[in-house]
Amino acid sequence: MSSTIFFFLFIPLLAFILLAVNLIFAPHNPYQEKDSAFECGFSSFLGQNRTQFSISFFIFALLFLLFDLEILLVYPYLVSAYTNGVYGLSVMLIFLLALTLGFAFELGKKALSIDSRQISNSRVKQSSNA
To answer: Pick from 124, 70, 130: which is nearest to 97 by CA?
Structure first.
């Protein structure tokens, strides 16, 4: 039996066994608070549980994920930098250039600026006072 076949049989079997052990030995005691929506330990107040959430936070998180994965892609080159030669260096420079241009484009579109509600509320108050 080769190691590949062993792992294709062993890993699903191990996953099934661990799930079965969890279902058998885990305590099952549902109650109302446990099944309700979790809001930092407090019940949500009427009208405050579903406020508008700025899409800027999601864009910021996706851009962070993109550049975090970029580090993951650069790591193999850095580990074998002595043996890659000029070809590996040129490929890595092209990759980093493409990422730098993308980052400059994001800065130009102001994708990383998140407007604070406090700042926007103070602008509204200033314009209403004038």
So the answer is: 70
